[in-house]
């Protein structure tokens, strides 16, 4: 069985385009699905955050009005179960990327506030990619890829095919026109090749060791793809 690193946002707010703070964090469905499926398959998951802070769940992702009573209760129960792990997150700066067969990055808007600009996350992703480890960000998680630049500013994932929470999804079901910047657009500008499906479709893209998912609806498919890659 494999050791897997899960890099989770430590942010609890995202400053919107009008300067107002928007409560955020990690998206429950994404973290819960990935963590639960990987552990159930016998793998070991280490949670890391910038500075080792305890990550915050996005309140909207456990709101019964948004996700339904059954899912909200399930996500809350699982997060309570792994609360000790979340509360003892490893600082990303202390991570030895060579220890891990895969790096998984769930979303929520939080990565737009910290992981996209976090030098330690960037170093970890570059090291993992160059070692051939599986890298699996999904929904807003691919924002973290933007931190992966070398000393000359070159983007580690330029030319790689991936998917991400689309600008259309952001405008229609995310933070709308108050979005401070759009992850899909920024990744395109950095040189990534974006492969999008219809809004809210379950969509996963595999490009070598890079496995990406478009949105929360893709969470289970991303976990399955990571498990298949580990098995292969």
Automatic annotation (TrEMBL):
Keyword Transmembrane applies: no
Keywords carried by this UniProt record: Glutamine amidotransferase, Lyase, Stress response, Transferase
Limits of the DJ-1/PfpI domain: 29-228
One GO term of the biological process aspect: methylglyoxal catabolic process to D-lactate via S-lactoyl-glutathione
GO cellular component, one term: cytoplasm
The keyword Lyase is annotated on this UniProt entry: yes
Superkingdom to which the source organism belongs: Bacteria
InterPro entries for this protein: Class_I_gatase-like, DJ-1/PfpI, Prot/Nucl_acid_deglycase
Single Gene Ontology MF annotation: transferase activity
A Pfam family this chain is assigned to: DJ-1_PfpI
Protein family per UniProt: Belongs to the peptidase C56 family. HSP31-like subfamily.
UniProt protein name: Type 1 glutamine amidotransferase domain-containing protein
UniProt source species: Agromyces tardus
Organism classification: Bacteria, Bacillati, Actinomycetota, Actinomycetes, Micrococcales
């Amino acid at each position: 069985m494999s050791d897997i690193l899960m890099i989770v946002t430590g942010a609890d707010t995202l400053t919107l385009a009008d300067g107002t703070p928007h409560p955020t964090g990690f998206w429950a469905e994404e973290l819960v699905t990935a963590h639960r499926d990987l552990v159930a398959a016998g793998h070991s998951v280490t949670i890391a955050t910038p500075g080792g802070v305890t990550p915050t769940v996005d309140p909207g992702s456990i709101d019964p009005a948004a996700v339904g009573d059954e899912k909200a209760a399930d996500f809350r129960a699982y997060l309570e179960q792994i609360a000790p792990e979340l509360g003892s997150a490893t600082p990303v700066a202390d991570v030895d990327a060579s220890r891990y067969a895969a790096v998984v990055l769930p979303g929520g808007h939080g990565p737009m506030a910290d992981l996209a600009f976090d030098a330690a996350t960037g170093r970890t992703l570059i090291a993992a990619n160059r070692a051939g480890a599986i890298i699996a960000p999904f929904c807003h998680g691919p924002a973290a890829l933007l931190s992966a630049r070398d000393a000359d500013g070159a983007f580690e994932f330029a030319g790689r095919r991936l998917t991400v929470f689309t600008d259309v999804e952001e405008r229609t079901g995310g933070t709308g026109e108050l979005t401070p910047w759009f992850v899909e657009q920024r990744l395109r500008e950095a040189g990534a090749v974006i492969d999008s499906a219809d809004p809210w479709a379950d969509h996963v893209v595999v490009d070598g060791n890079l496995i990406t998912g478009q949105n929360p609806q893709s969470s289970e498919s991303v976990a399955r793809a990571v498990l298949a890659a580990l098995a292969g």
